[in-house]
């Protein structure tokens, strides 16, 4: 196993980096809740890949926090909200001069919801209608291994996170 994934979790202990790295985990994808107990985590680290470095400085894990959070579609399915939600996200990223050519967009049918049987059809129909952005259904490991963002990363270009403050939970915000 090379990839760890969490969803809806607002915080992690700094020791998780060593635990993951020593277990062979190279990639950490997280999608916290949008506005509960996370402070400014999404604003600081959402959609910005970084190497989360252990306390010893000996281990690191390539981390990507989904800026849209895991709950982007909790108010309705992709087949009803997809075009509007995706275009809104693209405009937001464009206005922020987003530097990457891919973004992680978690999709769930509500909190602890099951899979959406219409997902594949929606993605196929989207890609037939629009040139960009191209939607790809992928596992988190596929995202890390094939995403062009990660193909170009050499470690020197990423900000290493060397403390746990950004992932502290219980901020009350």
What would the keywords be for this entry?
globular, 5-stranded mixed β-sheet, alpha/beta, 173 residues, 31% helix
What does this protein look like?
- The protein is α/β, with parallel strands linked by helices and 173 residues long.
- It has one domain (3-167).
- The protein is 31% helix and 13% strand.
- The protein contains six helices and five strands, in the order E-H-E-H-E-E-H-H-H-H-E.
- It has helices at 15-22, 41-45, 78-95, 119-129, 140-146, 148-151; strands spanning 3-7, 27-31, 50-53, 60-65, 160-161.
- It has a five-stranded mixed sheet, with helices on both faces.
- A hairpin with a 6-residue loop joins strand 3 (50-53) and strand 4 (60-65).
- It is globular, with a radius of gyration of 16 Å.
- The termini are far apart.
- Residues 164-173 have low confidence and may be disordered.
């Amino acid at each position: 196993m090379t990839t760890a994934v969490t969803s809806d979790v607002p915080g992690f202990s700094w020791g998780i980096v060593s635990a993951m790295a020593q277990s062979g985990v190279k990639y950490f994808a997280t999608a916290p809740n949008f506005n509960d107990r996370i402070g400014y985590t999404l604003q600081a680290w959402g959609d910005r890949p970084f190497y989360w470095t252990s306390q010893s400085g000996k281990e690191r894990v390539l981390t990507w926090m989904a800026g849209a959070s895991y709950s982007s579609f909790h108010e309705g399915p992709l087949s009803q909200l997809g075009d509007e939600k995706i275009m809104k996200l693209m405009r937001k990223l464009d206005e922020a001069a987003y530097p990457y050519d891919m973004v992680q967009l978690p999709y769930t049918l509500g909190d602890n919801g099951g899979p959406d049987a219409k997902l594949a059809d929606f993605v196929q129909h989207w890609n037939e209608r629009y040139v960009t952005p191209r939607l790809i259904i992928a596992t988190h490991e596929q995202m890390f291994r094939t995403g062009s963002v990660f193909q170009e990363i050499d470690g020197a270009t990423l900000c290493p996170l060397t403390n746990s403050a950004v992932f502290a939970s219980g901020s009350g915000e």
